[in-house]
Each structure stands twice: as C-alpha cells, then as structure tokens.
Amino acid sequence: MSELGDLLKKARLDKDISLDELQELTKIQKRYLIAIETGDFNALPGHFYVKAFIKSYADSVGVDRDQVMKLYQNDVPTVTAPETKVRNIRRKKRSFISTEKITKWAAAFLVICFIALIFALIYYFLVSGEKDQNLLDEPRLTDKNQSEVLTESEKETMDDSTTEVEVEPEPAPVPELPPDPEVTLVTSEGSTNTYVVSNVDKLQVEVEILNRVWMQIKKNNNEGEEIHQQLFETNKIGEIYSLEHEGSLYIRLGNANNAAITVNGEVVEQDIANVWNFQINLKKSDSSQEEDTEISEGTPPSDESADD
C-alpha cells in the first residue's frame, strides 16, 4: 500500500465513509477506489485518469487535493506532456482487409473466371464446328490420284490453322485501400494546442465526461460561430458527447482534465486542471480539393477560470 493510499483511506475512515458511500459521492467505481488506496494505479483505466480520480477522492473525504498531489507526486504516475515539436499521433493500424472484403473479392474473382470459362467453351465449339464443316465439304476421293490426295505437310498446315487459342482470364483488380486517419500536434502555445487531422473528409469528435466540466465548441476557430456550450455536472459522468463536422473546430474546456477528447479515433491527451483550448484543423483526404473554409488561428484567448 502506498503512502498516498494510506492518507486517503485514513481520511475516509475518520469521516466514517464506506467504500460504497464514497462510490456514490465520486461516481468512481468501487474497484478503482480500492486500487487508489492500495497504490495499484495500473488497475485504473488509463494514466491520465489517475490524477482526476485521486483529486475527486480527496475532495470527497475533505483532504486538500493540491497539497496531496504535491506531497505524493512520486506515487502518482505522470502523463507525458504534449511536445512542442511536430509529432504524429498514430493509431495502431488495424487489419488492412476485413473478412467481408476478402469474401467480396473472392466472389468477384470466381465470377470473372466463370465468364472467361464460358467464352473459352464457346470459342472451342465454334472452332470445332468449323473444322467438322470443312471435312464434310471436302469431295470424296474416287481414286487414289496423287494429285488429289493431301500431302502430310498440307494436313499439318490445316491442323495448325485450327489450333485452339486458350484465353487466360485477367486477374481481378485489387482495390486501393484508403490511408488511416492521422492526428498531428502542430503547436502548443500558451493555453492552446493546435492539431491537424488528415486523410479524412470530416471531423468525428467524442468527449467523455469524467467529472464536472464546462465545454464550448465553435466552428473553424475562436472567432467562429458557436455550435455547442454546456456545463456537465457530476450526474453526467460516463456520458459521451459526439459531434461530426465537415470543417475545422475550436474546443474550449474548463477543468480540462475532467474530460477525455477523441478525434477520429485518436485520443488527445491532456493533464490540465484549468481552462484549455484545442484548435483542430481539418485537412481533407483529397489533395486536389481546397479547404472550403479559410482557417485563421488568431490570437489565443487568455486563460479564464471556468465555473466550478
């Protein structure tokens, strides 16, 4: 058991709070609360959830969470901060070809082979029919005059002219698979991270609510039209807000570490306790297609404390 877990457990017992009651207060599953008390942080769903869960635990048992994080920062696993240099956040590539696609390709190949076989049989019977007709049209030999008898060389020439030509089926074309989506961190200045999403035609954003958090979403950038604004209370923990948009987005979070953002399947990691901004620029997959909307990053807004 870690010193941090001992401190939190002692505070809980001093207030005579059971694990079941603490689960109702924090909306954190009981097994995760036990993992925090025993120092088994690997049992939590992800490292960037650890601090959020510990802070929520500390608040519920009346312990100063900031003081706890400072005193026991060696016990808490750290989350790598975003690099200021350009880096690619790549998903692990899934299987290139699904079973359903393989079945379709195999069916298409069999159909092509069947059609080719039909054409080959038709050609064979046409050539054989012409050969039989030529034999019927030949005059019967009434005598064995050498001038009327075909020589061996002439027979070979006739046989060569009627040789079948085999038609080989053309191989089925292999469709070109689209590239996987890429989410790239371009800059991290002040309280704003700027990302570029490529190889897709639209943004697919999911925001998972981990604790009390405020969220605002605008089109294109900070000066764009507001799409959504909401304060998610603790009764919304575990819910996922989803949005699809054919253009760039600007997302602002208050208590940013109380939410987990996923863009086109890529997790955008953050470990920020106050207001944080995310400029997500869409670079469409068709290289010849120009952006429908000109993206202007503008001046990042100053940090403001979100309503607690």
Automatic annotation (TrEMBL):
Which portions of this protein are annotated as coiled-coil regions?
A: none
Transmembrane ranges, per UniProt, are: 102-126
This entry's Gene Ontology molecular function terms read:
DNA binding
- Indicate the segments forming the HTH cro/C1-type domain, all copies: 8-39
| Skewed-composition ranges (Basic and acidic residues) | 145-158
* Start-end of Pro residues biased regions: 170-180
Q: What protein name does the entry list?
A: Helix-turn-helix domain-containing protein
